[in-house]
Amino acid sequence: MRNVDRHLLLARILAARKVFCLGAFLGVACICFQVPHPASAQSLSSREYEIKAAYLYNFIKYVDWPSYGDTITIGVLGSDPFGAALAPLSGKVVKGRRLLIKHLDSVREAQQCQIIFVSSSEKQRLQEIFESLRSARVLTVGETRMRRAAPD
């Protein structure tokens, strides 16, 4: 086996390992959400968005970001369901870059971010948002299912 083939195989194994670990983490989180809990609805919602903020933070660790700038910006497009859950992330350093949190008023602003959380309040505009971000280097994350249009 050539040296290049070994490196390619090793890279694929490591990538599969990362995906497996992330999947396992997501699975555990799903199980936690299904367990009945005596807490109030407001604290459950607050806890839900703390966990979602943790996911956003961990996504940053698993992405190979292009080498531009010394910050990684997480933008929230639409109504902000996080409350104070994203605040602890602001200023943290991940992969040598400082995190910034921005609340966005437009898709145009989103093009300046590396990660965009698309709020469920933007459900009716999802297709428009994704079309506007098509050429941008942006990781989009959301909590709304998007139905793909049927192929022509």
What would the keywords be for this entry?
single chain, 152 residues, alpha/beta, five-stranded mixed beta sheet
Describe this protein's structure.
With 152 residues, the chain is an alpha/beta fold. It has four helices and five strands; from the N terminus they run ααβββαβαβ. The chain has a five-stranded mixed sheet with strand order 2-3-1-4-5. Strand 2 and strand 3 form a beta hairpin. It is globular, with a radius of gyration of 18 Å. It starts with a helix and ends in a 10-residue tail after the last strand. About 5% of the residues have low confidence.
Distance between the termini: 44 Å
Q: Count the strands?
A: 5
Main pleated-sheet profile: 5 strands, mixed
Q: Give the low-confidence spans.
A: 35-41
Strand order of the largest sheet: 2-3-1-4-5
Structural class: alpha/beta
Q: What is the N-to-C succession of helices and strands?
A: HHEEEHEHE
Please report which band the strand proportion falls in: under 5%, 5-15%, 15-25%, 25-35%, 35-45% or over 45%.
Answer: 15-25%
Please render the helix and strand layout as text.
Blueprint: H1 3-34, H2 41-62, E1 71-77, E2 93-94, E3 97-104, H3 107-110, E4 115-118, H4 126-132, E5 139-142
Parallel strand pairs: 1-3, 1-4, 4-5
Antiparallel strand pairs: 2-3
Concise overview:
The protein is of the alpha/beta class. It contains four helices and five strands.
